[in-house]
Write a structure and sequence with these properties.
The chain has nine helices and five strands. By secondary structure, it is of the alpha/beta class. It binds adenosine monophosphate. The site of adenosine monophosphate (AMP) has 17 residues, from α2 and α3.
Length: 193
């Protein structure tokens, strides 16, 4: 199965992706995680992405498209994958469409997480507070001002993908305001899997 999880930052995509990995036995491809790893390893991509990510803006389409193109070639992704945080712009979605078409593959579904902005801000604050209490490192982009920029990037550049995939007939919407287990159940229901 090839899935996209689409939604604003803090909507629960990562949490649900982890559960889908276990249930469907396919990998989670999170461009945010891959970019954070590149930043930590100080690779050329990481060096380019670091400041952009710290500001809460989007890394260039060329960079992320290349990362995903390389990643879906790996063996574990042959039987399917869960894209988390990609595509985030219409050019990225077009590039993904071409990549899959060239391989004779298709997307099974795009799961949209619907969550109100007030709730997203509260979740980010809670995530930051809990990390601080545990003594864990806090993500630089989990800062109220940077989070606002991330939400703006979502609104301006990613939200148009909802209509993009709706018009292709692949969009399934779930209510991401529900408790985690309920969201998991709703995803199972919309996927029929
Ligand atoms: P995430 O972990 O998905 O919230 O991503 C963290 C940050 O990584 C984003 O705020 C962007 O700076 C960058 N990023 C992740 N995925 C993408 C993408 N598909 N396109 C552009 N930038 C991305």
């Amino acid at each position: 199965m090839r899935l996209i999880l689409l939604g604003p930052p803090g909507a629960g995509k990562g949490t649900q992706a982890e559960r889908l990995v276990k249930r469907l036995a396919i990998p989670q491809l999170s461009t945010g995680e891959m970019l954070r790893a590149a930043v930590a390893a100080k690779t050329p991509v990481g060096l380019k992405a670091k400041d952009i990510m710290n500001r809460g803006e989007l890394v260039s389409d060329d960079i992320v498209v290349q990362i995903v193109a390389d990643r879906i070639e790996e063996r574990d992704a042959k039987k399917g994958f869960i894209l988390d945080g990609f595509p985030r712009t219409v050019p990225q979605a077009d590039a993904l469409g071409r990549m899959l078409f060239d391989k004779g593959l298709k997307l099974d579904a795009v799961v949209e997480f619907k969550v109100a902005e007030d709730e997203l801000i509260e979740r980010m604050k809670l995530r930051k507070k809990q990390a601080e209490e545990r003594g864990d490192p806090v993500r630089k982009d989990d800062d109220p001002d940077v989070f606002k920029t991330r939400l703006e990037a979502y609104r301006a550049q990613t939200k148009p993908l909802i209509d993009y995939y709706r018009s292709k007939g692949t969009l399934k919407t779930v209510d991401g305001m529900q408790p985690i287990d309920k969201v998991t159940q709703e995803i199972s229901r919309v996927l029929g899997a």
